[in-house]
Amino acid sequence: MAANSTVDSTTPRPALRLPLEWIGVAPFFLFALLFLIMPTMKIVIGAFQTPDGSFTLDNLAGLFTPSILAAYWISIKISLASALLGCAIGFAMATSVVLGGLPRWIRGPLLTFSGVASNFAGVPLAFAFLATLGPMGLVTVFLRTEIGIDLRALGFNLLSFWGLTLTYLFFQIPLMVLIITPAIDGLKREWKEAASILGASNAQYWRMVAFPILLPSLLGTMALLFANAFGAVATAIALTGSSLNIVPILLFAQIRGDVLGNPHLGYALAFGMIMVTGVANAIYIWLRARSERWLK
């Protein structure tokens, strides 16, 4: 026993090794810390501070002024309109490609384009729409000179509610296609065969089987599209400037000190946007988890 304990005491202990498998994801955590978590904490703390650093609720109370409430309401309406239209059009496109009997080669280019277009925003997107549908845009001039249709006379203005909504659809529809396509792929062929055996028509199958299964995914994706549009800043500023009073433009002006001259009220504006988009993303995550239980 003594000999054994002597051997055990002299046995070298294994050296402490760093978990090398975490090195690959270290840049992600560093990026999230520097550009997501720390700025968010700065905004949250600043929303409850005065310029001298003391605690206050006046910044949040300032959000209930008529002009700021109107900006939030317009932003919510634009986000909701683009989310609803994006969901409807994107779902129709994804369904046509996956289940509509279209040639298989269409799916690859559509998903590739959707991956690119869903990230195409900001100044390039605003310029593209101004060059196409602006007052002197290519399509606007062609319709007026060659066909005799004056979009401005018909009431269309790109620098307006529906103009910004139309611009948002350029990245909302592709994002919907990317997210809903795997959910449509998850519909089992056996479900449709069983419905047909029981005498259900195609419309009854969609109304009683497929659509209820896809509903959590549809609602969750709509919540994500709402958050995506509500937080879009660069496109709105580049396209409309200060002509449309929405929260991102008001926040941009507030940060520059052009309008209200209170940076901490700007923090409160950003904090309100974080709350709205946070609720929308939480709804998306919850509904996505429910839909995945059905599609496994």
UniProtKB/TrEMBL annotation:
Membrane topology of this protein: Multi-pass membrane protein
Domain ABC transmembrane type-1: 72-286
Subcellular location: Cell membrane
GO BP field: transmembrane transport
Gene3D superfamilies: MetI-like
InterPro entries xref list: MetI-like, MetI-like_sf
Sorted UniProt keywords: Cell membrane, Membrane, Transmembrane, Transmembrane helix, Transport
GO cellular component, one term: plasma membrane
TM region positions: 22-45, 57-74, 80-102, 123-143, 163-184, 205-226, 232-253, 265-287
The organism's place on the tree of life at top rank: Bacteria
Pfam families recorded: BPD_transp_1
Family membership noted in the UniProt record: Belongs to the binding-protein-dependent transport system permease family. CysTW subfamily.
Name listed for the protein in its UniProt record: Putative spermidine/putrescine transport system permease protein
